[in-house]
Amino acid sequence: MKKLSFLLIFSLLLFTACKKDKVDATNTKTLQSSINDMTASLPTIKQIKFNEALYILKTFGVEADGDVAELKALGQLINGKKVPEIMAMADQVAQKNGIEWASNAPPSLGEMNIFGDDKAKESDPNDVKANSLSIITRPTGDDGTGAPTAIQIIPRLVDNSGNPVSFTGAGLEATLEVFSNGVKLSTAKNLMQDNNFKGFNLKFSSIPAAKVVDNKIDVTVSVKTTAKTFKMTKIGLDVNPSLLKVPAPVVVDSMAVEQDPAVIDPNNPGAAVPADPNATAATPATPKQSAADPKNVVSGFLNNVSSQNLKAAYNSSSNPSWGSYESFSNPTSGFGSVKNVSVKNITTNLANTNAASVNATYDVTDKNGRTTSLKATFGLKNVNGEWKISSYKINP
What we know:
alpha+beta
């Protein structure tokens, strides 16, 4: 009898010892098993808050499309973490995304299950009875000229008559997708806890200018209840083109690309050019003498960029790091994003028959109005009697 009692106690201790107190994300099965163990060790209220924290992290803390991908990304995020660490992470994510949720507050999101059990419970705040979704959009903000700086997008669940339905204490996943000419520009998520939801504040400065067609965007909002996902789209919303996101011009370090042997190294103009061991001994052809001053070529290049005569600017160069004309003139990542160039000083550093080096100091203003002061060295080579910009380096 004593032996049997000992075995029972030993089995109980062994079972308790096998329960996990931190996440094991080796696979979906171990993830669910470890989370179940961690949840079971908590008081009832803490269990609910723990499930809410996991939902917050799965929905807003990872970048993935679809429940399966989100669950896998969540596992990677919380692998090896214990309950207090997960709660703290959820607090940070909620605060970052402007979600009214805190780990030390009462339960507020209904019954959350990150493993996809969407069946309605006996009492389920997320089982909202509605007929459809409506969207209210209104321009907000003022850029100083009376033009808006953003669009407020507010979804409402409505009944058969189009009247907003009343509910509280829910945690409905609301997703905003932004498109232009059929191309998705961005996605945002939030929690709809009642039908007074403030919605989404879409700032024009977050929308890439290069992807917006005719200064119009389309928005689609979906709201997921326990029984159904409601979706609504509004087409042809106006944006403020002067505020759209236009990155500063990409600064290309010419030292990262293979240089033409005839090009002077701007950082060491006096260095000798190493001989090509595979070259055959022959008398090199003498290039045509260039009549133009290399300094004037750089000045003309900067003036053409400033006036957005980008074809002329591109034609004055032969720089492999700038790629094609399309890449060079790209309004997002190339010189097409420049609004103005103000030249302060240009000096010829070194010049001979084959190559030259020119230093320039100037201010670049992009189409968002941001101004950057630059000191650059342009390398030039003689191409059939014409100077061509063949390298470009920004100096400290």
